[in-house]
Design brief:
With 300 residues, the chain is α+β, with helices and mostly antiparallel strands. The protein has helices spanning 13-38, 43-83, 99-133, 153-159, 163-166, 220-260, 269-299; strands at residues 138-142, 148-151, 185-190, 193-206, 209-218. The mean pLDDT is 77.
Length: 300
C-alpha cells in the first residue's frame, strides 16, 4: 500500500527573502575570492575583501528584508483592523505610480467603502428599531427553530413580559405556537389583554436561513371605534328627524293657542284651528313611523 507523502515544511516568507538576497550576493563573493587567489594577492588583502563582502551582503539582505517585509506587515495589520471593524488605521504611503502605493490606495478605498456601508447598516438598523418600537401591532420574529429573536414594545405589553425574558424562548413556551400556522382572526386572552385579534404572517431570510414574522393587532378597539362612529351618525339622524317634526308641531301649537285666546274670535278661527291640528297629527304620525323603523334597525 502506498504511503502518503509527508508534508514538506514550508519555509517562511521572510527567510526565503533573505536566502534569495544571499544567493544573489554569493556568486559575486565567490568570484572575488577566485580572483584574489589566482592573482597571488596577500592573505591580509584577501581577508579584508571577504570581510567587506560579507558585511555588504548582510547590509543588503537586511535592507531588502525591511523593504519587503515591513510593508507586508503593514498590509496585514490594516486588513486585520478591517476584519475587526476598526476603521481608524489608514495607510501612510499613498504614492501614485508606485506598485505598493497603488495597493495602499486600493486598500484605503476599500476601507472607506466598508466604513460607509457599515454606517448605513447601523443607521438602517436604528431606524428599523425605532419604527418597530412605535408600531401598535405586536411583532415577533422567530428563527428556524421557532425561537424568538426580535420583539417590539407592543409584543412585550401583549405578553406581559420584558424582552429579556422572551428572547430565546420558543413560540410554544411563550404561548404563540398555534398562531404561527392558524387562522387570521382569533379570540384570545393574553397577559396584556383579551379580545379579537388579527394575525398576519410573513417570512424573511437572515444569513441564508428562513425566519418567521408574526404580526398580532387588536381589532376589538377598531371595531369599538367603528361602532361608536355608527352610533354618532345614528344620533345625528335622530336629532335631525326629531327637530324636523317637533319644530313645526311646537310652532303650530303656539299659533293655535294664541288664536283661540283672542277676544272676540275671528270668523275663520275654526278652519285655522282645524288645519293646524291636521298638520300636528300628520307630523306626529311621521315621527311615529320613523321611530318604528329605527326600532327595527336597532333589532338588526
Amino acid at each position: 500500500m502506498r504511503q502518503p507523502r509527508a508534508k514538506r515544511r514550508r519555509v517562511r516568507f521572510e527567510v526565503r527573502i533573505m536566502l534569495t538576497a544571499v544567493a544573489a550576493v554569493v556568486p559575486m563573493l565567490v568570484a572575488a575570492l577566485v580572483l584574489l587567489y589566482t592573482s597571488h594577492a596577500p592573505a591580509r588583502a584577501i581577508f579584508t575583501v571577504i570581510f567587506f563582502a560579507a558585511v555588504s551582503m548582510f547590509i543588503a539582505t537586511y535592507l531588502l528584508h525591511e523593504r519587503l517585509v515591513y510593508p507586508l506587515r503593514t498590509l496585514t495589520n490594516l486588513i486585520s483592523a478591517l476584519r475587526e471593524d476598526d476603521y481608524t488605521l489608514r495607510p501612510r504611503d499613498l504614492h501614485a505610480g508606485d506598485v505598493l502605493g497603488e495597493v495602499m490606495q486600493e486598500l484605503d478605498t476599500l476601507r472607506e467603502a466598508i466604513e460607509s456601508r457599515k454606517l448605513e447598516a447601523i443607521e438602517a438598523t436604528a431606524l428599523l428599531r425605532a419604527v418597530l418600537a412605535n408600531i401598535d401591532a405586536a411583532i415577533f420574529a422567530f428563527d428556524p427553530e421557532q425561537r424568538l429573536r426580535i420583539v417590539n414594545r407592543a409584543g412585550e405589553r401583549l405578553l406581559g413580559r420584558p424582552a429579556l425574558r422572551l428572547l430565546g424562548a420558543t413560540a410554544i413556551e411563550i404561548g404563540l405556537g398555534d398562531l404561527l400556522d392558524g387562522p387570521e382572526i382569533v379570540d384570545r386572552r393574553f397577559a396584556g389583554g383579551a379580545g379579537r385579534w388579527s394575525v398576519r404572517r410573513s417570512t424573511f431570510r437572515e444569513r441564508g436561513l428562513p425566519h418567521r414574522l408574526l404580526f398580532i393587532a387588536d381589532i376589538s378597539r377598531a371595531l369599538r371605534e367603528e361602532e361608536a362612529q355608527a352610533w354618532q351618525r345614528i344620533v345625528r339622524v335622530l336629532s335631525h328627524e326629531l327637530n324636523n317634526s317637533l319644530a313645526p308641531i311646537q310652532s303650530i301649537a303656539d299659533s293655535t293657542a294664541r288664536l283661540v285666546a283672542r277676544e272676540p274670535l275671528p270668523e275663520d278661527w275654526r278652519d285655522d284651528a282645524t288645519s293646524g291640528m291636521r298638520v300636528i297629527s300628520s307630523r306626529a304620525e311621521g315621527l311615529t313611523r320613523f321611530l318604528r323603523a329605527y326600532a327595527q334597525l336597532a333589532k338588526l
